[in-house]
Each structure stands twice: as structure tokens, then as C-alpha cells.
Amino acid sequence: MHRFNEGQQKAIRHVNGPMIALAGPGAGKTTAMVYRIKYLIENAHVNPYQILVITFTRASAKEMEERFWNLMKGKVCGCTFGTFHSVFFYILKAAYGYKASNILKEEEKYNLLKGIIRKKELECGDEDELIQSVIQEIGTMKGDMISLEHFYSGCLGEEVFREVYREYEQAVASMGKLDFDDMMVYCYELLKERKDILRKLQKRYRYILVDEFQDINKIQYEITKMLALPENNLFIVGDDDQSIYGFRGARPEIMLHFKDDYKDAVTTFLDVNYRCSRNITEGAVRLISNNRTRFDKNIVSARDYEEPVHIHHMKTLAEENAHVLKQIMEYHERGVEYEEMAVIVRTNVQARGL
Hints:
354 residues
């Protein structure tokens, strides 16, 4: 039997009502989640058909499903595992008969906007960068539920952005397609207008688990809240300290204010790191604790002190590269294989010199 710490046990055994699980890095959250689903089915006698597990990427949804399948030793369960987009598309498919061919590919989206922007004959330094910025802003506008009239574009200015947006929307509609952002918008509008469909989905998905909740945006949260009613068996897991997708519309403040919407929400901390040595976890805590807007929490390592963390300040990139190469040679002389070393850089440019 798997041994769990106190925070994991609390997450696994919680059954009814909302819960927020604050999971630090390397804290075994996926393990806790799959055992929680098992507990709901075997101990709380929840119908697996009524369990919905939402993740942010197809890879993590697949991994979660496989881990659960292995845990249940291949028993047919019937839980739904999917990304926000796959769940929303399933709802739209059932309501409107959409097919996979109706989804606008990212390449098509890029080319549509490129054609529209080129016709405007705008002066821009980097066309690709401008198009990517427009794509990002359209996503932010839809994800944050901001009307076109109240959205300010930082890359095109208000009037030009509105023209580009309207032309883009018309082009997508004339193709009989919808993009990934539209899936959220259409799904939200459908559930607001069709209470019969919403009630049917609420009865179907009585228990909802959301992974990486720090990456959620406003419209995803609003749809999730609607689906969770009236029982609010909503289990969210994430870490506001690990939110890095603000540029893509993620709103970690939603997680920070979860208890404003769910006053009776229970909190548990998955605060034992099984991946890193104490040197790393303690250094990480010292660094991240300087952030002012965050949940107050600590991470402890299940491992002992190992290789210390060294911080070096270099004046130039060349000096930095020379130091990294020297370090690599020293490790190699001490018997560490090259294959066991990794150099992580922030941009491709930094790697070229090495």
C-alpha cells in the first residue's frame, strides 16, 4: 500500500463540497489525485460515470488516465479525463453536432490573421511577432470575457485591432469553423441560455477535479462553477507559485480568491517535496517568499541535504559560458558522465555561444 503524508490523506479522503489542495512542486499531486478518484469510487460509492477530471494539456490528461487505469488494474471505470478544450468541445458536439473538421487549426488562424494584417499595410518591425501578439490578445479578450468595445490592444491600437478582429471573426464564421477560444465562449453561452442542457451536465458530472488550477482563466472558471452546481463537489489542485502562463491568459488570482466564492472550501497542503534535496527546496522557498500576493505556505523535502546550490554573478555572456564549460569539465573529471548533465538556458540565443 502506498504511504501518504497528512496533506495527501486529507485530499484523498475528502468527499463532498469544495476543496483546494495547494500542491508544491514534486509533492505527489498526481498520485494523490488518482488515489482520490479510487477512494470516491470504492469508499464513497460514487458512480465513476459522474466523475470529471480536467487538466490543461492532453499529455497530462493521458498520463492521469493511464496512472488511474494502472491503479485500478484495468477495471472499466467510466470516469471522464480531458482538457478544458476537449470537455467543452464534447459539450458543443452534443449540442450543435460539431466535428473535428470544424476546429480551426492554429496554422489556419495564423494565415488568416496574416492576410488581414497585410491588407492594412501597417508598419511593423517583425511581422511574425505582431501576428503572435494579436493571436495572444484575441485569446486574452475571450478568456477574460472582455467585450471588444472595452478591450485595449497593446500591439495594434484600439481601432485597428477592432477592424482586424471583426474581419477575422467573419472569415472564421464563413468557413463554418471555430477556434480554440470560441469553444469556451460558445460553451459558456450555451450553458447560460440552455438550462436544460446545463442541468443534464450537472447530473452527469457530480464530482469535478481540476489539475493545475493556477493556469485557469476567467471563462474556464465561470463554466466550471456552473457545471459544479448545485452540490459544488469541486476539487481544485495547483500552486500559485508555479503560475507562469499569465501571457496566455492564466489568472492565478482566481485560485487566491477561491474561498471568496466557496466559503466552506476545505484547504489541504501537499507540502512534502519528494523530488529535490533540501538545498533546492529551502532555496526555492526563500526566493518565492519574496512574492507578496501568494498563499502563505512552506515546502519541506523528503530528502536530505545534497549538492549545494551555487549562485554566480557574471558580467558578460562569454564569462558565463566559460564558467559553465569549466564546471562541466570539473564534473566530468570527478566521474560524472556528460549524459548525466544538463545546461538550462532561458533563450536559444544564450545556448548558441556554448
